[in-house]
Amino acid sequence: MTKTIQLSGVKKFYHVGEQDLAALDGINLEITKGEFSALMGPSGSGKSTLMNILGCLDRPTIGSYRLDGEEVANLSDDELAVTRNRKIGFVFQNFNLLSRISAAENVALPLVYAGIGKKEREERAMYFLEAVGLADRAQHQPNELSGGQRQRVAIARALVNNPHIIMADEPTGNLDTKSTHEIMAIFEKLHDEGRTIILVTHEPEIASCASRQLLVRDGKITRDEGKGVRMDVV
Amino acid sequence: MLFNESVQIALKALFSNKLRSILTMLGIIIGVGAVIAMVSVGMGVRQKVTNSIASLGSNMLIVMPGSANTGGVRSAAGSMVTLKYEDALAIKNKIKNIDYVSPTVSSSYQIVNGNQNWNSTVQGVTPEYMAIRSLKVSTGSFITQNDLTSRNRVAVIGTTVSSNLFGTENPVGQTIRVNSQPYKIIGVLESKGQSSVGQDQDDVVIIPLTTAQERMLGITYVKTINIQVSSQDKMDIVQEDVETLLRQRHHIINGKDDDFNVKNLTSLMQTMTETTTMLTLFLGSIAAISLIVGGIGIMNIMMVSVTERTREIGIRKALGATFKNIMMQFLIESVVIGVIGGLLGIVFGCSASLAIAQFGGFNTVITSAPILISFGFSVGIGLFFGIYPARKAALLDPIEALRYE
Q: What is the domain-level CATH number for residue A154?
């Protein structure tokens, strides 16, 4: 089975005053391609730090992180940016859409940094807006959309450059029940398409949609259930 | 990222904050406008000075007597009585590369017409004086060789004298009294306006040299000899020849001081041009200071913009924007402020310059150099003062930036 993500002995320290505070204290984790994992844990457990490292927004202080077999723990800022652009799609709790530009332009944003021409950007943005059912809202600005719609735009944006990993940080945290169900349905569909999904959440109900549940506590993974489920999907 | 995208993002950002963008640009607009307007005023002064020196005649050498030295006490320059009409004739006959030679004398007199009187300078000249000083006669005629040989009591007057003594009447054919002697007016000069040093060139009465020497002043010497050299590159040779000839004629042995001075108007012109160039640079550099102040304004607003858009920068970085991408985005934004501000500044500067010429009575000259330089400067200022804020934006940590509220 292809190991998309391999963390071994990952530690992350922060300087607080005189002391070094360990946010992550020796994480060993392997995620197979196509797995749908939920990352849980109380606040302060280190799950956000783990998420940032997995999303190539941050580097471990010590340890190795291999993404598709490539060591990324020692990449420069710009190399990390390129890796994020090509391999990872982000979905945030507060959507993080740019407010001054249209939904379609928001979706196309990663393609701008991938150096793709205007025409192809527009086509691909429309394709993914259609996929999340928002083709008719392409020219609307984010503040003209509902929370659920905004999150769907954000998902379209996460998908537009065809990354095989989707990182979702509390994607339903700001949504009502109906929108939550819609969004989770989209994630399940993406899982069926064979994408690797990592979902950070507080809610056990949301986590139960995932095939694998990871619990982070005091910078360590203390529980790991359902590993390797759906190995039929490659 | 493609360059076009960066420009579009920058324009969008500037348009979404119109008032702020315009106020920021105002600094640059005023700076560029001030440079263009001030330099145009300086260039105008320079043109005026150059023209008025040129109106004295081009390629001019002026020979004046030296100062008298009586028992070690030296008098004012030009007080010697050693220059003669014959010196002028000798210069004309013996030295090559000379177009015209005109000896003159002058003195101040009260000029009377009926119950009107006016104090003016009376100049005794030869007919060549007209060509050498580029004078033109608007009505009547100038002094002739015949007037010179017969020592006629005739006069040509300037417009200032004419208007003061005759009002709107045509003075040609009438008689004025100078030093109680009657002179018939044969012509009126075309107006030449003020000289570079503010002297009214129209306040003059011109009579034949011989008449002035013998009938009016009772002298045998001349005050100056004006020489027009045929071309500028011959000026120095002719000046040397004149000096050698006059030393011979005045029997001045080696080692003794000359009893005359030869002045070169071309070098005077150079000095004046240098002075006015300094003035122009001085005005321009004061205006350039306001451009730099405008640049600091750009930097200030870009710093605010970076702080305000921290979250946007975080989002862009999370989606794969590199250091260079973000740097470019903000640099282009500040350069665009410089470019638009510069263009508006050119319009503002040119209009201000025309307004100064129209309403301020100054002569202004708009040239391309200050426009190009100040525009280049404003773009450069946008670039320079944009670097620090853009770098600050590009160095933001994406995690911190995403968390920023």
A: 3.40.50.300
